């Protein structure tokens, strides 16, 4: 049976949601029957969400209605996978605390804007990270507020400069998975620029992460 993926994109134009998700549509169509929506109303469509095995979201900031958020949370808890990158998943719907709880982290800052930084792989044994090594990136480096339920696969450390108001290095998760009911959540914070999404380690993690998060048709149990 062909599995179904729903790509939901919109919000702030600065993250180029249409162009960014278009980069992954050919890959997704190799594995899923794909529907693309430019509205959050899809989340309130219960039959659509129940039939969806993976939601890929690229929606920075904005607001989500109560019935839309309830539909998304219900679907993920029932087994629909949820995946995304950068602000399209960790800077969505800033005032929707139920959304933040499900995703496991919230964007707080990207000090310095576009900066050189390192993504440090901390779980090389995880199938998403197989063959992925620490890598350098010149892009936004996300400082996140996160919780301990995340299974962190990679981190990034922000070192304070002489004029910064914090005094110690701050390490934030950069890639993680998370269980939510019967569903699986995958988040990758690199991805501010289209060029970031084309980098081999980022592209590899995203493709594997989306497949990992998708509902496993063989079981309702969510693996590690």
* % residues in beta strands: 25-35%
Give the spatial strand order of the biggest sheet. 2-1-3-4-11-10-9-6-7
The number of helices is: 8
Tell me, rounded to a whole number, the average pLDDT. 96
**Measured on Cα atoms, how large is the radius of gyration?**
16 Å
Q: At the first level of CATH, what is the class of the domain at 3-105 and 173-213?
A: Alpha Beta
Describe this structure in words.
- This protein is an alpha/beta fold and 224 residues long.
- It has a domain at 3-105 and 173-213: Class I glutamine amidotransferase (GATase) domain (Rossmann fold).
- It is 27% helix and 33% strand.
- The chain is built from eight helices and eleven strands.
- The strands form two sheets. The chain has a nine-stranded mixed sheet.
- A hairpin with a 2-residue loop joins strand 10 and strand 11 (183-188).
- The longest helix has 14 residues, at 200-213.
- The radius of gyration is 16 Å and the shape is globular.
- It starts with a strand and ends in an 11-residue tail after the last helix.
């Amino acid at each position: 049976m062909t599995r179904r993926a729903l790509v939901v994109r919109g919000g702030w134009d600065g993250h180029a949601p249409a162009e960014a998700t278009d980069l992954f549509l050919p890959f997704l169509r190799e594995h899923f029957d794909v529907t693309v929506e430019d509205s959050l109303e899809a989340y309130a469509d219960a039959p659509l969400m129940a039939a969806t095995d993976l939601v890929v979201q690229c929606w920075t900031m904005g607001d989500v209605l109560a019935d839309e958020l309830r539909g998304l949370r219900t679907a993920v808890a029932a087994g629909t996978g949820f995946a995304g990158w950068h602000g399209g998943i960790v800077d969505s719907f800033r005032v929707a605390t139920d959304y933040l709880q499900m995703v496991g982290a919230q964007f707080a800052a990207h000090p310095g804007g576009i900066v050189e930084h390192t993504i440090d792989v901390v779980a090389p044994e995880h199938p998403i990270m197989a063959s992925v090594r620490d890598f350098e990136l010149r892009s936004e480096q996300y400082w996140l507020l996160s919780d301990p339920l995340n299974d962190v696969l990679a981190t990034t450390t922000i070192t304070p400069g002489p004029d910064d108001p914090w005094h110690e290095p701050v390490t934030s998760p950069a890639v993680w998975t998370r269980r939510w009911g019967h569903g699986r959540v995958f988040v990758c914070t690199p991805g501010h620029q289209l060029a970031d999404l084309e980098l081999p380690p980022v592209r590899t993690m995203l493709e594997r992460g989306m497949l990992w998060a998708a509902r496993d048709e063989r079981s309702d149990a969510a693996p590690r």
